[in-house]
Amino acid sequence: MSEISTVDPSAAVMDLKRRDARDKLTGRTRYTMDRAGAGMLHAAVLRSPLAAGRIRRLDTSRAAALTGVHAIVTADDAPGLVGIGIADHPLFARDVVRYIGEPLAAVAAERPEDAAAALAAIEIEIEPLPAVITMADALAEGAQLVHPGWQDYEVLFEGGRREGNVAWEATAIRGDVDAAFARPDAVIVENTFRVGRQNHLAFEPRAVVAHYEDGRFHIETSTQVPWTVRNATARVLGVPASEVRVTVPPVGGGFGLKFDMAIEPFAALLARASGRTVRLVNSREEEMLTCLCRENAEIRIRSAVTRAGEILGREAVVLMDCGAYGGEQIFLTTMTAHTLGGNYRVGASRLVSRAIYTHTAPNGAFRACNGVYNTFALERHTDEIAQAIGMDPLAFRYRNVLGDGDLGATGQRYEGEVLRPMLERMDTLRGIPTAATRMADGRLYGRATTVGTWFVFTGPSAATVNMNADGSATLVTSGVEIGSGSMMTGLPQIVAATLGIRPEDVVVRQADTDAAGFDVGVGGGRTTVSLGAASLAAAGEVRGKLLRVAADMLDADPEHLTIREGRIEVAGSNGPGLSIAEVASRAQTLLGPIAGTGGFTSKGTPAMSGCAAGHFIDALDIPVFAVHDCEVAVDPDTGHVEMLAYRVVQDVGRALNPRAILGQIQGGVVQGMGYALQEEVTIGSEGNILQTGFETYRVPLAPDVVPVEVSLYEGAPSLGPLGIKGAGEVPILNVGASVACAVANAIGRPVHELPLTPPHVAALMLGRRSAPVLPHIAGRWTDNLVKKA
Description:
It holds the Pfam family MoCoBD_1. This is Xanthine dehydrogenase family protein molybdopterin-binding subunit. The chain has about 800 residues and is of the alpha+beta class. It is about 25% helix and about 25% strand. The longest helix has 28 residues, at about 525-555.
């Protein structure tokens, strides 16, 4: 019997307060942006004022001669290209600019005002070029190419198709879709949807402090992905990755914004050039203009169904605006197959996802990524299917949600009955729904129930656990605490339960790429799962060493020992025992340091051969499901939508810390409310983002928030340690869908766009707003790249 298998999962389950909560609430926590000190230089970045143009002249000589200026760097100092899937992204614009805000140069000076003066003194001439601002522009016949040399870029991941302004295409095709749509008993339902961008609006902007000493870079940065920053920075600077060390202070909000390299190389280059420590912090305006927003997208989806409610076939095209560079959008094209193809049992499907280049700021990952708008599109489409065949929407969902043995869009076979019992749980939570459509105050009432499928992004993680002589343990990982509590609470619970100590006796080391093994980063609901599995394995190795030493000390068999509450004892009511501190001290004397290491990576859940192309993840190791129910009131005069009640049944596998999960669900729902009702990034005709700060970007405020009623659904299959699943990402998944379906039910008109601002809703009620017309994805569904070899 292994030491790990003897861990009682229930020993890890407890409601715990965040250990970092008091310092954060009282302002004692020092984030990266707080790390200013004597002798540091202040950095600033010169950014392009045009969306598209050819750089004719860039002269830094006058700026370099100014008092207080220590270093200026440009594209000549950073020759490498980076990217995900495609290496298309230079650190600084080289020869051409591709979006407003693209970096042209960076300076380091004694004072912020010296850096600002240097930026103003840089002489720059840019010849304007035609710009493609929208995806329709980019896909038009004869459109200007954002990357005329796209064919020459290094392809870092094989399988996707590319052409012109289509940066990447991923497809998932299963079964005979054409035959499904040709059946004489098929009812064809078709819809188009459009969503805008969403800004992460993390309170702490992207920030970095860089040092260059003894031929190595040390980067302190606010990031979710220290190893990505290490490797990408090394690539763009043209140095070995071993010459870059990344450490991560507390992070003041991420949500996916900090899931890639950002401003770190600027500071690193300036530190090397100046020989001084350099601090660079984005202004709020820079964050708004260059934030890796949740992308705007357009979705065309149609289904063939029978009058009895069987889904014969489905096909969809999703266009994702990746902005000027492919970045994370290349990877995120993968998600479409698992979100549009993950809720329901479908006979045959053809799903196409394309990342489109435009002359706008690059987009990136944001909590539940494209799942949020794909779920909106799919659930609204599902309601319209039910209406077309005369079936109750909830009954249609009960009939068709995925169950044990059903196939997803990539041919993955799902395990267990999860969604159907979750719908039943919601029925109990909701009670008998009201049949009223108008409230006593004259407002229109609407309610809707939606389902959603997401997943835990597994990937490689590593952990080391060191046992200290005083009976405490130190956990060393590359994990980063971004607000979920996983690093500060979840992982200590797992280690503590394995070693028989208190969670507060587990010290969690700050992420440091010199001290911890490789990790793909914190996000995708993976922290407690992937890092938790690695930590469990590492703690299990330590547990085994302690038990063997204790067995010698107690003259007992290791399998007859128990380890709990700070003691190791011989099983039995009166068995002799020792404190863990005594055993740890003895073990160090006999064996030296008592440490264990553990690792975890994707389990490789099978998909159907030949179904998926261009996908970074063909199948989901750990699918996660959600059922949401929403009640709204709509003012018929103003179009204002008020949330009346919100309920969530969430698949959590096993809830290690229910208190923490409830907090994540409440926060995720509120963030989703902003996406559904208020948050609107507007791109001007020149390619500039019009919202430049908190004053012009509307997010939910305290009066907008409604308490969320939550039921945690436990017991669904999971490969996670102790049966857990990630719980922080999925709460936002269904919110846009639930609100949109409820509003549609309230006003009696279909909803095809988000956000549902009062003017938008009022226009819908007045019949002045219809479904988006998307001629650039009209015609045959299989036209364009999907048909090309």
